[in-house]
Specification:
Layout lengths: L2 H20 L5 H17 L14 E4 L5 H11 L5 H5 L29 H20 L11 E5 L1 H5 L1 H13 L4 E7 L2 E2 L2 E2 L8 H8 L2 E6 L3 H13 L5 E6 L22 H11 L10 H26 L3 H12 L6 H9 L5 E2 H15 L3 E5 L3 H4 L18 E3 L4 H13 L4 E7 L3 H14 L4 E5 L17 H6 L5 E3 L4 H13 L5 E4 L4 E2 L18 E4 L6 E5 L3 H14 L4 E5 L3 H5 L3 H7 L5 E5 L5 H7 L4 E3 L10 H8 L3 H12 L1
Parallel strand pairs: 1-2, 2-3, 3-7, 6-7, 9-10, 9-11, 11-12, 12-14, 13-14, 17-18, 17-19, 19-20
Antiparallel strand pairs: 4-5, 8-15, 16-18
Helix pairs in contact: 1-2, 1-3, 1-10, 1-11, 2-3, 2-9, 5-7, 5-16, 7-16, 13-14, 13-19, 14-19, 16-17, 20-25
């Protein structure tokens, strides 16, 4: 048994042992893909476990995250800070080996995977980031960024639509630095894939414009020839369709769904070890396997040192650009500069004022790149003066994602975890339904991703209820680590963009309007940075008996209602709350200074009220919409649904009795 074979068996049986000890997990896919993974890590992948965040490392993405023990086993052998004790603690509380790989928890894990298809989209984004960075920094004879992305995917990844959208983007952009290996083992949890899946994936990818090869995934020579060809191929991303046997080596369960999502059983594992001539010891690591990976790590260490000398030699604009990308630099006075732009703007829809603010933000933050899902004319997110991102021309900043919200959001996550860019993507708020899985993963990974969703409410008007979001604001606010920002006027738009670009550890979702909003009047000496608290007193009264909390275009409605209530002798405070998520992070005493615990609490927002009811309590008044909208001009909708100053004031007076 040679070194390669010992490394393969080490990974296979570490995976089987860990799943067995945890009594939970997926042993079959790690056993099937061990050989391919050993080849990738010891022959092709450039990495240095001593510097896991090396910017020009090759990326390895396990899109089939259920096979996580495959990745944990190889990272242990490769020399990352993942001791054997962590493998023995697979899926246990506090371990670095959770059920599915999690970015930021386990060294060497590039992205959080598990929801199938998302890893493929992330891999596409990482590959795009390499091309964008290369276009900005590389010169003949001096390549600073040329990393490749290797991704393993399963039948499930191929079935989920998000992988198809992302792969279509990759083919269109001709990302020849991307190698996707499809584990065609023809088994899913319910049985053979023929139950529901009969397409020829290779032909589909040829239609996307990919270079496609087919191999026996258990023949090392075939696999190596295919990987050699994929790495050398130019002008297209590569797909290798690898036919494998799930749970290979297990005498009774190999090639069946019983090897997929459950432990094999100790008797089955022991029988497989005996057949392979392997020690029966649990968690046995062959010294030869360690040695094979150690040699590769040492080679890669030399490659990294040579690369670092090249970076150290950068001067002038290239040095500045390198620093800007690798730090994702944002100026310290970003808010102040954006506020200055806001001061020049007239009343408009916040998508319009947000667009003007974005232009300044893009000028100040070179690593900001992004686009729209074929809606740039409506979301107004095009960076003016910059070209489009397309094959052979990656120096631009405007990304045409096409009508692919699923793929857009997943690719954005890949751009973010590359560590080189702050990505943004845009569409209508209603279509966050398409993006939600990727938004949730960005929040879970605490990645700096910016979403710009316009057409924020029923007030988009005549397109009607299919396009009018109702439950979306609170559905999104419920995602941990995601900040939902719904600004009311130009100043709040400036604060929204500043918040998104200054916030390093989590995504931000800007919710902008199609309807026009007023430029709000604020107290003399108002400090714009207070907006970053998430909610602030816009208009006050001494000892207020009513506090109206509003967001977006409804802040103007709340101000009009206050005027009417004041004329009736009522003491009313108006609170603008562009980002309730940020406000809730303030200390209780700071929140109490804005939203008092006495008097009537009223919320006004053109969306579902359930979340606000938790804010105001049963004694509060929540003015919103808990039904679907209607097709009509925005002005008529405001009247019919009660979003006028007169209607709000009347409801407050009724509640006060």
């Amino acid at each position: 048994m040679n070194e390669f074979e010992k490394a393969v068996h080490t990974i296979q049986f570490l995976s089987a042992d860990a799943v067995e000890k945890a009594n939970s997990g997926h042993p079959g896919t790690p056993m099937a893909l061990a050989g391919i993974t050993v080849d990738i890590y010891t022959r092709y992948l450039r990495y240095d476990p001593r510097a896991p965040e090396w910017p020009n490392r090759d990326r390895f993405v396990l899109s089939c995250g259920h096979a996580s023990m495959l990745l944990y086993s190889v990272l242990h052998l490769a020399g990352y800070d993942l001791p054997l004790s962590e493998l023995e603690a697979f899926r246990q509380w506090g371990s670095k080996t959770p059920g599915h790989p999690e970015h930021g928890l386990t060294p060497g894990v590039e992205t959080t995977t598990g929801p199938l298809g998302q890893g493929v989209g992330n891999a596409v984004g990482m590959a795009v980031a390499a091309k964008l960075a290369a276009a900005r920094l590389n010169q003949p004879g001096s390549e600073i960024f040329n990393y490749r992305v290797f991704c393993l995917a399963s039948d499930g990844d191929m079935m989920e639509g998000v992988s198809g959208e992302a792969s279509s983007i990759a083919g269109h952009l001709q990302l020849d630095n991307l190698v996707l290996i499809y584990d065609d083992n023809k088994i899913t949890i319910d049985g053979k894939t023929e139950l529901s899946f009969s397409e020829d994936v290779g032909k589909r990818y040829e239609g996307y414009g990919w270079f496609v090869q087919r191999v026996n995934g258990h023949d090392p020579e075939e696999v190596r020839r295919a990987l050699d060809a994929a790495v050398a191929h130019q002008g297209q991303p590569s797909l290798i369709v690898a036919h494998t046997i799930i749970g290979i080596g297990a005498p009774n369960k190999a090639g069946t769904s019983k090897a997929h999502g459950a432990p094999l059983g100790q008797a089955e594992i022991d029988a497989a070890k005996k057949a392979a001539g392997w020690p029966l010891d649990r968690f046995y690591v062959a010294p030869e396997a360690k040695a094979l990976f150690a040699r590769r790590a040492e080679e890669n260490h030399g490659v990294r040192e040579t690369w670092e000398r090249s970076v150290a030699g950068l001067t002038g604009e290239r040095a500045a650009m390198y620093k800007s990308l690798t730090t994702r630099a944002v100026p310290s006075d970003l808010l102040e500069q954006l506020v200055a732009v806001a001061g020049t703007l007239k009343p408009d829809a916040t998508r319009g004022t947000g667009a003007a603010i974005e232009q300044k933000a893009a000028a100040l933050v070179p690593c900001l790149v992004g686009g729209a899902a074929d809606l740039a004319e409506s979301t107004k997110t095009t960076i003016k003066g910059s070209s489009d991102i397309k094959h052979g021309e990656f120096g631009g900043r405007n990304f045409n994602f096409g009508i692919r919200e699923h793929g857009m959001a997943s690719v954005m996550n890949g751009l973010a975890v590359s560590g080189l860019f702050i990505p943004f993507g845009s569409s209508f708020l209603q279509f966050t339904d398409y993006c939600r899985p990727a938004i949730r993963l960005a929040a879970l990974m605490e990645q700096q991703v910016v979403y710009v969703f316009t057409h924020d409410s029923i007030f988009l008007g005549e397109d009607g209820p299919t396009h009018q979001p109702i439950e979306h604001l609170w559905a999104l606010r419920m995602i941990p680590h995601l900040d939902v920002v719904r600004p009311a006027d130009p100043l709040e738009c400036a604060a929204a963009w500043a918040h998104a670009l200054e916030r390093r550890h989590g995504p931000s979702l800007l919710v902008l309007s199609r309807q026009k909003t007023a430029v709000l009047e604020r107290p003399a000496g108002f400090e714009p940075r207070r907006i970053l608290d998430g909610a602030y007193v816009l208009s006050d009264a001494e000892n207020p008996e009513v506090t109206i909390i509003a967001t977006g275009s409804e802040v103007g409605v709340a101000v009009e209602a206050k005027k009417l209530l004041t004329a009736k002798g009522k003491r009313v405070r108006v609170v603008s709350a562009p980002c309730w998520d940020a406000f809730e992070r303030l200390a209780p005493e700071a929140r109490a200074k804005v939203v008092p615990k006495t008097g009537l609490l009223v919320t006004v927002e053109a969306g579902a009220t359930h979340g606000w009811a938790a804010v105001t309590g049963p004694a509060g008044l929540n003015i919103g919409i808990d039904r679907f909208g209607a097709s009509a001009p925005a002005e008529r909708l405001a009247t019919e649904f009660g979003f006028t100053g007169e209607a709000v004031a009347a409801k407050v007076l009724e509640r006060l009795g």
